[in-house]
């Protein structure tokens, strides 16, 4: 019968430390999270990124944008898509997805449903118009352009208007705006102001009416003298 030798204490400690380090890495790196990495190398169209995990990831250079001039040593924020690819054993990263998530988070900080914004109509698309609001592209449905139905959308292209944000879609990551609601709001205000001016308050009309002074004719004076006697 073979006698099992006890594992040295130092080996146990090293193995435990390795397991704890691996567990810490896995809790830090989650699919869909944004992580900061360093460009370690560039080979052809592949940009290799070190995010501090046991393996690196690679991103196609096109995701950095034309003329980005990325080079080894650069710090970049990327999205962790997959912790370890079955085929390559590398982490799967995306710069484009990270940029989109950062852009959308900034939009959520800047805009809320019901706020009024100014934008320029870029182009006509199926069902409505695309509106450029700062660096955000919003959708203006055809039913929200005017109070009356609009058949020809082209005359609106290039025009700048105020819009009301009526919906922020997290699913599609876009803004839906309305010009019609602002127009209807202005019309309602004018109608209310017109109704108020047509019917002044009764107290105001009484206050503007001059008071009648007591008569000072001789007959009036004789009548007062008789009552006094």
Overview of the molecule:
- There is one protein chain.
- The protein has helices at residues 9-28, 95-110, 180-198, 202-208, 218-228; strands at residues 34-43, 46-50, 57-60, 75-82, 91-94, 116-125, 128-133, 136-141, 160-169, 174-178.
- The chain contains 5 helices and 10 strands, in the order H-E-E-E-E-E-H-E-E-E-E-E-H-H-H.
- A hairpin with a 6-residue loop joins strand 2 (46-50) and strand 3.
- The strands form 2 sheets. Strands 1-2-3-5-4 form a 5-stranded mixed barrel. The chain has a 5-stranded mixed beta barrel with strand order 6-7-8-10-9.
- With 229 residues, it is α+β, with helices and mostly antiparallel strands.
- Among the domains are: 34-110, Nucleic acid-binding proteins (OB fold (Dihydrolipoamide Acetyltransferase, E2P)), CATH 2.40.50.140; 111-182, Nucleic acid-binding proteins (OB fold (Dihydrolipoamide Acetyltransferase, E2P), Beta Barrel).
What is the structure about, briefly put?
This protein is of the alpha+beta class and 229 residues long. The protein contains 5 helices and 10 strands, in the order αβββββαβββββααα.
Secondary-structure map with pairings?
Blueprint: H1 9-28, E1 34-43, E2 46-50, E3 57-60, E4 75-82, E5 91-94, H2 95-110, E6 116-125, E7 128-133, E8 136-141, E9 160-169, E10 174-178, H3 180-198, H4 202-208, H5 218-228
Parallel strand pairs: 3-5, 8-10
Antiparallel strand pairs: 1-2, 1-4, 2-3, 4-5, 6-7, 6-9, 7-8, 9-10
């Amino acid at each position: 019968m073979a006698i099992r030798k006890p594992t040295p204490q130092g080996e146990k400690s090293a193995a435990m430390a390795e397991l704890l380090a691996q567990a810490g890495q896995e809790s830090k790196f989650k699919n869909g999270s944004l992580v900061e990495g360093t460009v370690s190398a560039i080979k052809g169209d592949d940009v290799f990124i070190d995010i501090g995990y046991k393996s690196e990831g690679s991103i196609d250079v096109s995701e950095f944008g034309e003329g980005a001039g990325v080079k080894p040593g650069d710090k970049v924020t990327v999205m962790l898509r997959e912790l370890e690819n079955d085929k390559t054993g590398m982490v799967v990263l995306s710069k484009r997805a990270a940029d989109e998530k950062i852009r959308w988070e900034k939009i959520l900080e800047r805009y809320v449903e019901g706020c009024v914004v100014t934008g320029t109509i870029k182009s006509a698309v199926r069902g409505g118009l695309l509106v450029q609001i700062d660096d955000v592209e919003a959708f203006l449905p055809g039913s929200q352009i005017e109070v009356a139905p609009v058949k020809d959308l082209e005359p609106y292209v290039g025009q700048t208007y105020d819009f009301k944000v009526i919906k922020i879609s997290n699913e599609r990551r876009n803004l839906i705006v309305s010009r019609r609601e602002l127009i209807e709001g202005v019309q309602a205000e004018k109608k209310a102001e017109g109704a108020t001016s047509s019917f002044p308050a009764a107290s105001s009309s009484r206050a503007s009416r001059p008071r009648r002074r007591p008569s000072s004719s001789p007959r009036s004076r004789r009548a007062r003298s008789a009552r006094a006697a």
